[in-house]
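step: validate -> pass
step: tokenize input -> pass
step: predict -> running
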Amino acid sequence: MGFSEYRASPNERKRTSDLLSLTPMRGRRALDIGARDGHFSLLLAERFDEVIALDLRKPAITHPRVVCVQGNAAHLGFADESIEFVFCAEVLEHIPHTILPTVCRELERVCKGELLIGVPYKQDLRVGRTTCHSCGGKNPPWGHVNSFDEHRLRCLFQHCVVKSTTFVGKTAETTNPLSKVLLDLAGNPYGTYFQEEPCIHCGRSLIAPPERTLNQKVLTKLGLIARRATSRFARSRSNWMHMLFAKQARTESIEGISSSFRGGRDRLPTAR
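step: predict -> pass
step: emit ->
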């Protein structure tokens, strides 16, 4: 599925609408992390005087208010609190867990106003797994290596306060350890092989699996039966979670430290 088809889907239109409802109507400077095709950068350009579209590869977006930048979210080349609004959707789920805290600290550092994060909600990363036929590595669906709920996302942005949390879409996709093991052994024939994200192990493109052996077909059948045993009792949940943060003002932190100091000083003997 191409970007244009994906963006036009009903679920994606709902997600876009919800993200825009949490975005300021006017502003001076915005940063779009992981801009990719420029879909959100162009929408932000309707509201902000300047939009910085950042991705690992320099985006190709033509608009007088959009500045395209090649960069890494773990090492942002912007001054502290230099960005009025930071937009980051469909990104954090792809970040290796070893550098995820670093990326979140960078987003907080450059933000001086509001920070909008969009991630899949409580995604079961065992559903839709793929097997790379170049290296044999097992991949989570869509290259998503992180799963999020409200608590985890709040903990990653400790210098911000939550202004709003919204949820979009519905899903009941889930599985169990037995089904995961069986489908891994079967080569994960029903994984998300049409994704653009490469193998997280070797970086090569994922391709559809070859013709399966009889043993793999049997394992696939057993894996699907095991999954259905869990799915019958699965509860519906939202597909996406959008959380709007506000950067805590430095003056508030300083005042809090000063108050604590004054309170403690009253209990200390006066220096002579």
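step: describe -> Residues 123 and 166 are 16 Å apart (CA to CA).
step: cleanup -> pass
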